[in-house]
Amino acid sequence: MKQTLAIVVLLLFLIDEVTANSEPLLTSEKVITLGVVEFPPLVIKHVKDDSCYGEAIDVTSNILRELDYIVNVECIPPARLFARVKTGHVDLTINVRGTLALDDNVTFVSKPFINLSIILAQNPRFTSDKVVSAIRGYDYFGERKRLKEEGFTFFDAADSTDAIRMFLMQRTSHLLSYKQPYLYYLNSFSNASISSDLSERLTIPSYLAVSKTSKYRVVLLEDLHTVTEALKGKTIFNSYRKKGD
């Protein structure tokens, strides 16, 4: 009995030693959660599951890996993304300045990530209608407010694909969208095209945005600032695309 007890005590001691020795290895890993929303062609959702891929993810992941971070990617709707950024469950995202649900909860990296164009598409068959499909929670740099002041009403969707699809199915007379997802959708689906009049409203920069409640906030901002300010291109995205050519 005494011999058995001694063996048990020895095993417990060894387990404690292994755990203690492994803790520094576990805590030394910097695991960053990158949160993204569907935004083709920069962020494309897989057909079979909720994961995403695309050049925006590739560029950001490459930067983080160069800085010795481990990257987890969450591909979620905007409203959920903003909530997870606020609580620090998402450390880093990509967005424009001026999104009310996000701006107070992040610190933006100063160098632009990529420039985006906002367009208003109109179906010429519905010249007297003023119903716009758009992404729920997106202000579009003030364009939503301006259109409301002009008498437009909004039909909000969860993401860019749903908003574009509503317009192409002629459920709305107008579409407020970023240009890249709209053109990607038209080019990807040959039966999606309808006659539409496009007006380009704004071209604005988007930025890497670090959650103010991320446990890596200070070091992540310092690391990103150092590596991105050294880039010669006007945007982070174009600089890294050239590096890959």
In short:
By secondary structure, the chain is α/β, with parallel strands linked by helices. The chain contains eight helices and eleven strands.
Portion of residues in beta strands equals 25-35%
Structural class: alpha/beta
Poorly predicted parts: 7-15, 18-27
Distance between the termini: 70 Å
**DSSP summary, beta strand count:** 11
> How helical, in percent, are the residues?
25-40%
Count of helix runs: 8
- Please describe the biggest sheet, giving its number of strands, its sense, and whether it closes into a barrel: 9 strands, mixed
Order of helices and strands: HEEEHEHEEEEHEHEHEHH
Shape: elongated
**Overall pLDDT score:** 86
Rg is 23 Å
Care to describe what's here?
With 245 residues, the protein is of the alpha/beta class. It contains eight helices and eleven strands. It has helices at 2-28, 55-66, 78-87, 143-149, 160-168, 179-188, 217-229, 236-244; strands at residues 30-36, 44-45, 52-53, 69-75, 92-96, 106-108, 114-122, 131-135, 153-157, 174-178, 197-211. Strands 1, 4, 5, 6, 7, 8, 9, 10 and 11 form a nine-stranded mixed β-sheet that branches. β2 and β3 (52-53) form a beta hairpin. α2 packs across α8. The chain starts with a helix and ends with a helix. Residues 7-15 and 18-27 have low confidence and may be disordered.
Structural features:
single chain; 245 residues; alpha/beta; nine-stranded mixed sheet; two-stranded antiparallel sheet
Summarize the helices and strands and which ones pair or pack.
Elements: H1 2-28, E1 30-36, E2 44-45, E3 52-53, H2 55-66, E4 69-75, H3 78-87, E5 92-96, E6 106-108, E7 114-122, E8 131-135, H4 143-149, E9 153-157, H5 160-168, E10 174-178, H6 179-188, E11 197-211, H7 217-229, H8 236-244
Parallel strand pairs: 1-4, 1-5, 8-9, 8-10
Antiparallel strand pairs: 2-3, 5-11, 6-11, 7-10, 7-11
Helix pairs in contact: 2-8
